[in-house]
Amino acid sequence: MAVKPGSPGKSQVSPGVIAIAVIVLVLFVGWMAYHSFAGPKITFAPDNVDSPIANWIRDKARESGGDISKLNPADVQKLQTVTQGKGEAFLKKYAHPSQ
């Protein structure tokens, strides 16, 4: 037997339940967007990596004392390229390897 619209036999969802569902959906979409668009956390290669580029980065870090502004523009460009834009963080880490 079909139920007619507006008949007492049909239950309706309350506005409060709809509001909660919308809030949960917005929070979920926001969380997914944050994890999708936020860059990954900076991960450093282990200190014992012995490759030409790792040695070059450590040399530049010691040379500059961890300050990227003390490097020449060509070195800054190369550093940013090989570290995917995280050159300053790498310099600070490798300038003082005992930390």
Walk me through this protein's architecture.
The chain has 99 residues and is mostly helical. The protein has 2 domains: 13-41; 52-95, no CATH class. It has helices at residues 15-37, 52-64, 73-82, 87-95. The protein is rod-shaped and about 80 Å long.
Key terms:
99 residues; mainly alpha; 4 helices
For the record, the count of structural domains works out to 2
How far apart are the first and last residues' alpha carbons, in Å?
Answer: 76 Å
Relative helix content:
55-70%
Measured on Cα atoms, how large is the radius of gyration? 27 Å
Low-confidence stretches: none
Q: Given the helix and strand composition, which structural class is it?
A: mainly alpha
Average pLDDT over all residues: 82
> What order do the helices and strands follow?
HHHH
For the largest beta-sheet, the strand count, sense and barrel status come to: none
Topology, number of strands: 0
Task: Give the strand content.
Answer: under 5%
Q: Number of helical runs? A: 4
> What overall form do the CA principal axes indicate?
rod-shaped
Summarize the structure.
The chain has 99 residues and is mainly alpha-helical. The protein contains 4 helices and no strands.
Question: Could you give the topology of this structure?
Answer:
Layout: H1 15-37, H2 52-64, H3 73-82, H4 87-95
Helix pairs in contact: 2-4
